[in-house]
Amino acid sequence: MRKILIFVLLIFASCETDLDLRPKMQISTEEAFSNRENVQAALTGCYDALQLQHYYGRNLVIVGDLASDNSIANGTKVEYYDVDKNSLLANNILVEGIWADIYVAINRVNYMLFRLSDVSFLSEDEMKDYKGQLHFLRALHYYNLVRLYGGVPLKLLPTLNDSHENFLPRSSENVVYSQIIADLESARINILNTQTHRATVEAATALLASISLTRGNAENALLYADQVLQSFPMLETSYEALFSSNIAPGREILFYVPFSATDKNRLAEYNFPNTLGGRHENAPASVLINIDTSDSRKPLIAASYGGKYYTKKYADLITGSDRVIVLRTAEMYLIRAEANYQIDSVGNLGMILSDINVIRNRAGLPQATSGTFTSLRNIIEREKQIEFAFEGKRWFDLIRTGRAVDLVPTVTQPWQMLFPIPLSEILTNTKISIEDQNEGY
Question: If you placed Cys at 212, which of 171, 220, 381, 409 could pair as Cys (CB 3.0 to 4.6 Å)?
Fold first, then answer.
C-alpha cells in the first residue's frame, strides 16, 4: 500500500516545467487507482498543487498586489523589484515559476481525469463528484494563467513523457475562456462536496461571477453573484477572524487553500519585517498605509512595528499554517454592486449602495450615500482594494477595468498588463516561437 501511495504522490510531483511531468516509478496504473483510498490520494494531490511556492503557497498571492499600487518590493529579491516596477523579462523567476507551477497543477488534474476512465468501483455519484471537483480546479488554474499571460497552451490531456507530441501552441484568450466556462458548468452540475477547502457548487458559481465580470458580461456576473449570495449571504462578524489560523473557516469563505506545518506557506515570512523575524520582501504602499484609522481592516492590512509597515493577514511565522482565501462572500457583494453599476440603471442605485454598505458596515465605516454613478465606481473600486488587500486580487482588478495605466505609475503602456511568455517555454516548446511572445517583450 505504501508503494502505491508513493506512486500517486510522485506522479503529481512538482517539477520545473510541465515537460518534466511523468511517472517516476514503474507501478501500473491499475494498481495506483485500484481502490477508493488511492483515488482519494490522487485527488488530494490535485488540491496540494495549489500549495506550490509559485502558486498560492506564496508568489501568485504576492504578485497580485506587488504588480499593482497596493504594495512595494522592500527586500533583497530582484525578481520582486522587477514585478513592482512592471519591468519584466521573460526569464524572471516569478514569470517562469508561476507558469510552471500552474501547469504542474493542470497536469495533475488532467492525469487524474484521464485515469478515472479505468476506475470501475466508484458509484455514479462519486465519479460525478470527482470529475466536477477536477473541472473546477482546472478552470481556476487556467483563469489564473489567462489573466497573467493572455492566450496559453490549452492542455486537456496529461503530459506523460518528453515527446514533442505534447507541445501545443498558444490558444486564444477566447478559446481558453470557453474551456474555463465549460469546466465550471460541469463542476456546477456534478459537484456534491460541501467542504470549503475543496470545490463546491457555490465556489464554481462564484468563480463564474468573477469570470463574467472580467469578460465584460455584467448581466451574468450579477446572476452568478446573486445565486451565491442566496446560499451564502453572511459575512464573518470579525474581519480579523477570516485570517486567523486559530479559528476554523467560517460562513464567509467559499474556497480556500489550507496549509499546515508540514506543507507551510511562506507568506508571513515574506511580509513581516526583519525585526519580527520576516524578510519584508512585500510591504504596503502608501495607498494602504493611509487607510482611514476608523477602518477596522487597517490593523490587519497595514500594521506597524518599529516604523515598518506590514500586513498581518498571514501571521503564522512559525508553522506557516495560515489559510489562503481564494473566494469569499464579500467579493460577491462587490461584484454584484459593480455589475449593477455597469448595467447603469438608475433603478439599481439602492441595490448598489446596499451591497457596498454590507462591506463598509463590517469595517465600521459610515454608509455610502453617493447618488452619482461616477463616484460610486470609485467607491466600489476603493472598497475592493482595501477589502482584498494582500489576497492577490488587486492587479487583476486593475487590468480588468483598464485602470492600471491610471493608477500604477510604472504602467505606462497597455502591453504591460500582460506578463511575458516564459523564456523556458519559448526555448522548449516547438509550437511556440519568439514571434508568439506578448507585445512589448
Answer: 220
